[in-house]
Amino acid sequence: MATLDSLKWALRQNATATAKQPLSDKDYSVGFDILVRGSGWTSYQDFVIPQLSQLLTSLFISRAHVSALEIGPGPKSVLGYLPDHLRRKITKYTAFEPNCLFATRLEEWLCSTSGTESPLPCLEHLPDIRRIPFSLGVNNGTGTGTSTSDDDEKYDVILFCHSMYSMKPKRRFIERALEALVEQPEGGMVAVFHRDGHLHLDGLVCHRTASFPTGVVRVADDDEVLDKFASFIAGHVMKDVAADKAIRVKWREVCRALGRRDEACPDHLMFSAPDLMMVFTKHATTLPELMAQVPLVEGDKTVKNREARLHRPASIVTPTEVQHIQQCVRWALKQGVNLTVIGGGHSGHCLWPNVVSVDMSAFDKVHILAAGNDGGSDSDSASLIVAEAGCKTGDIVRKTMEAGLTVPLGARPSVGAGLWLQGGIGHLARLHGLACDAIVGAVVVSVDSGQVLCVGRVPSRYRSADAIRPENEADLLWGLKGAGTNFGIVVSVTFKAYPASTYTTRNWVIPLSDNFEARLRLDDFENLVARNLPRNCSADGYLYWDAGQPHLGVTMFESSTTTNDCATRTSMPVAALWGPEVDSKVVDSVGLFETEMYMSGMHGGHGGGKTSSFKRCLFLECIGGTHVADSLVAAVETCPSPLCYLHLLQGGGAVNDVAADATAFGCRDWDFACVITGVWPRHKYDTEVARSAIRWVYNVAENLLSLSAGAYGADLGPDPRDAGLAAHAFGPNRPRLARLKHSLDPRNVLAYACPLPKAPARQKLIILVTGESCAGKDYCANVWVSMFTTCTIKPLTARAVSISDAIKREYAAATGADLGSLLDNRAYKEQHRPALTNYFRERVRQNPELPEENFLKVVHGAEHVDVLLITGMRDKAPVAALSHLVPDSRLLEVRVQASKQMRRARRGCHGGNLDGDDYNYNDRGNHDSNSGVSNLTASDNHPSLFFDNDTAGDEAAKAFAEHYLLRFVHEDLQRLAQMVRSVPDFPRPGIEFRHVLDISQQPGGLALCASLLETHFTGDWAKVDAVACCEAGGFVYASALALRVDVRLVLIREAGKLPPPTVSVVKPRSHISSLESTQSEEKRIEMARDVVPMGASVVVVDDVLSTGETLCAVLQLLLKAGVQAEHVGVMVVAEFPVHRGRELLRQRGFGGINIQSVLVFGGA
User: Fold this and answer.
1) For the chain, what percent of residues have pLDDT higher than 90?
2) How far is Cα of residue 576 from the mean position of the Cα atoms in its chain?
3) Burial code of 100-133, b = ≥16 C-beta within 10 A, e = fewer?
4) Shortest CA distance to 438 belongs to which of 391, 497, 398?
5) Helix (H, G, I), strand (E, B) or coil at 674
6) Which of 32, 616, 762, 842 is buried most, with the most CB atoms less than 10 Å from its CB?
């Protein structure tokens, strides 16, 4: 699928000899509407608006009032689609919009006279719409508003939201915008959203960038529509009427030739429309300050990765000494900008648009230290290799081979430090492990302070004189071994060396007649060949297309430090399967680089610079199984070019010997690394041929991900398509890596390395306000916001947000409906309700994760808020469905209810359908007024609290908040949480254990916990007949609580520990027990028969709720003993939402039971 940029070039090529004239305002308006309607709006709803919301949140939170200048906004301001709390901060709005039709529509939209609220409701003056271009001159004129204008006007934020077409030179326009930023308070910014093409700004330095490479525009395949669309993309029409008519025919042909058709929309043409965001601050022009301190690269810097070559960095500096690197870091910290690092140049993000790159090529020395000659006191007798970060793998191998040594590095000679630090899978991996496993020390420049850090074992002569050992040295060394591009700029790495080997390589090529044979051969390759190889041997497989059919290529590598004593033994079974090898060679470590089958055997050889490639790698536990084999074969069958292939590198051996949490490289349990390789002729880069190969790589990776044991982080970067893969990199180490990144790179200087998860934010209270239509949810939410902000001892920030507003904005943009009326006019909303509901359902059909994504967008948009109240939820059991997404927050559901009479009164009528509400909840029946509890029985969901909103005014809502909601932010909860000790690496390494039972061992802890259990109970203790508990943690807290509320205690123990008669059920192992060992012995729990009278009310008390298995067994036991489900409640001291215990209980029929937790923690 061609990009809009390539379409524009092709259209203009067909009109070079014809006199042209610019588009009229009407022509431009029509073309723009075609572009942004429907699929074109996706870039705004999925990229521009979320990025802008995230960007402006931190800026707006530091200002009471915000002034905004928008350049070329079009008919509607993108600011009007921001979340409500951001829009209300904007008190001054100016726009330069030279298209008079757009300017008029924009003014009408912002100055609504229909009685609905303006998209920017808090403007102090009318919006200032200037119907002229934003120019580089000294006078940019005045507009239609009442505010005055002069050259000294300053703004907090300036936006170029619809690219910078016709603005040349673009750098000067951005500099002109920077001059218009306010000086105080600091932090003003210029944001540029540029659709398609590359934005070269000649040395301006970005504060932040983001990309949206998957943007697509769909255009109806209709002559009239294509005529308007093509003119808009080309940017002109013909002066001569006859010539214009003729060129339109040609342009339709071009559009149809370059556009791609999709089966889902066969009557539309699709074009790729990638989008890019660049953000600049007043520091954008400070590059000369760095250039005066650090040498620049001489001439053009050519990196290996062709994708990276398309990225025009702000500058490439070439430090020649460690002090230069320190100056780069200190400059970046001072200016608040990012850096990238160039090692081998294989990474697609070693260069990044308008970001300074640090080229490490001057650090190219390899030092060899014989055993015991490192100048230290370490008794380890191994030889050491000190490789500086500018070295390539080939440099190290050549130098060490001369000394009879080697290091287990990657398979290509041109790769650099980025590979060693993020894994490094080579042909010695089965024998000696990954490259990162051989790292024993490093010298690193901190990106937090600019200091030189000495980490691990570094020979004294290769340490900088001013190097220090950091307090978290062990953690940093751990992180460098598998995720090392994220934590500092590495100057040198110390490797443990091994004796050099000689290698025997053998190749087989097996044509595959059909899918059945492909599965059979893959199974043979794995189970009859690879699994039987000794550790000094490894086998690589290649699935590829050649001569009209798929092939399986196999290369066997055998290393030996003496003689090839196992050559015959390893080749015999293979020969019996596939016949004699195609060829065999005996080579040294350097010659090994050229023996890869794809270099010389496949498609005539990929070596010599004839092709370019794009790769992503997943780890597979097996390749012969039906599901995996079918997926691999299907991948090869669907490749867009026969040059594409799958490379299967054998793992196991020493790779598996290392525990997953012993290094940052946490993906250890795999048999093959599947490298999905899209290939195209080198001269075809930045064409549809290359783009289709890249799409194929991501599609195959997505299909294999659920079958994989993880993803390889070395290839991944800031491309949003990598996010799903990055979530499966590093195995169980992601939480620890997130904390380490936050500690070592708190200002995200190295923002373009393999993405790591963000460290957990402070715990917030999230209240989901649900209920029937017209029950008064939004009103209650606003009342409760005022209670949190005014009625607590500690000042809190609180905000109410409607999650449905996002869908309404999308719907309005896609259909032309009036957004203000959708948000504020109930009658208008009711009129659009069926279409709005269908639109939402279609969006969910296209993206089943949309509800979760919308929820997270709302939460992330309130990052700095202590209490967030969300209305407009559609989920029937939102706490069970969503709490695992925000495991470090407390999630509550408050169900607002009102009688039908009151709801009709609020609607403004005495009839109509009140059941067709936005939230798809059923009538919940009768309940105790404002008690916070319900006597509901026939439900698969029990909200945390209920509120009856049947009275006028806010007194009842305030009283409810004071009695039930404010206690969730009480300082006693903080005191109790601080008593829960965090124990790292227990019960096994990599687990951070929360010692909930330790509360009882703290002075006053047990009494405080029992008191909070009593007061947080939403029912009436006088109506409770028994407190039930399961050993051992439950005994401690339930006993104290039962004594406090004077209720009998029902003990639940392991079978055999209570005298008969008893009732028992099977109990699965608890979460912590499952971590302690791999035993799967079945256990039963029991309670005394008839200890609970028929019809009794029981509250189950336990110390933790994690997976929910234990609690589920307890509830099943109570049911078996005759207790009715509607008479059971649950209280736990601590809940761990990440394990989704509530969802398990709901799936097993216990969703209607009220479950309350006093504390909430992320992690284990």
Assistant:
1) 50
2) 48
3) ebbbbbbbebbebeeebbbbbbebeeebbbbbeb
4) 497
5) strand
6) 616
Range of the domain at 542: 503-716
* Domain co-membership, 330 together with 410: no
- How far apart CA 723 and CA 453 sit, in angstroms, is 30
DSSP per-residue string spanning 159-186: EE-S--TT-SSHHHHHHHHHHTB-SSSS
The domain spanning residue 984 has which CATH number?
3.40.50.2020
Would residue 1148 count as lying in a domain? yes
Q: Are strands 157-160 and 265-272 parallel, antiparallel or unpaired?
A: unpaired
Residue 55 lies in a domain: yes
**Judging by beta carbons within 10 Å of its beta carbon (0-12, 13-18, 19+), is residue 803 exposed, middle or buried?**
buried
313 lies in the same domain as 435 = no
Please tell me the total count of domains within the chain.
6
Per-residue pLDDT of 161-193, as tens digits, reads: 887 877 888 899 999 999 999 988 888 999 999
What is the C-alpha to C-alpha distance for residues 868 and 858, in angstroms, rounded to an integer? Answer: 9
Show which of 239, 257, 276 is a domain's final residue: 276
Alpha-carbon gap, residue 1026 to 1018, rounded angstroms: 16
Q: In this structure, what CATH number is given to the domain that contains residue 778?
A: 3.40.50.300
Token digits for 619? 């780890």
Please report, for the domain that includes residue 318, its CATH number.
3.30.43.10
Same domain, residue pair 183 and 53: yes
> Is residue 585 located within the same domain as residue 465?
no
The CATH number of whichever domain residue 190 belongs to comes to 3.40.50.150
Residue 144 lies in a domain: no
701 shares a domain with 660: yes
Cis peptide before 185 (omega within 30 of 0): yes
DSSP 50: H
Give me the count of residues in the chain. Answer: 1164
- Alpha-carbon distance of 782 to 895, in angstroms, equals 15
The two structure tokens encoding residue 180:
């218009």
Residues 187 and 79 grouped into a single domain: yes
Tell me if 1025 sits within 8 A of 1042, measured CB to CB. no
Residues 688 and 560 in one domain: yes
Task: Please tell me the distance from the alpha carbon of residue 343 to that of residue 414, in angstroms, as a whole number.
Answer: 10
Contact by Cβ (8 Å): 664, 479? yes
Q: Where are the beta strands (DSSP E) in 838-936?
A: 867-871, 890-897
Q: Domain containing 395 — which CATH number? A: 3.30.465.10
The predicted model scores a pTM of 0.73
Mean pLDDT by 10 residues, the chain (1164 residues): 88 82 91 81 84 84 87 93 85 95 93 78 93 78 46 88 82 94 89 81 89 89 93 89 89 93 86 90 93 84 74 90 96 94 83 90 93 58 90 92 90 85 91 95 96 95 91 93 95 94 91 89 91 92 90 92 54 75 88 80 70 92 88 92 93 93 93 94 84 94 91 91 90 86 92 83 85 89 92 81 84 80 81 88 83 83 84 83 87 93 73 42 35 43 92 92 92 88 70 84 92 93 94 90 94 92 85 50 86 92 92 94 92 91 91 93 74
- The single-letter DSSP state of residue 1149 is I
From CA 815, how far away is CA 831, in angstroms rounded?
A: 14
Q: Residue for token digits 């039987």?
A: 532
Distance CA 108, CA 102 (A): 10
Which SS3 state, helix, strand or coil, does residue 4 take? helix
Instruction: Decide if 910 is inside a domain.
Output: no
Closest CA to 228 of 387, 493, 503, 28: 28
What's the farthest any 2 CA atoms get from each other in the chain? Answer: 102
- Domain stops at, among 296, 326, 359: 359
Both tokens of 615, joined, read 């790769």
| CA nearest to 1105, candidates 1033, 1024, 1036 | 1033
Tokens read off for 190:
């210029």
Tell me: do 948 and 889 sit in the same domain. Answer: yes
Residue 555 pairs with which residues in a beta bridge?
507, 540
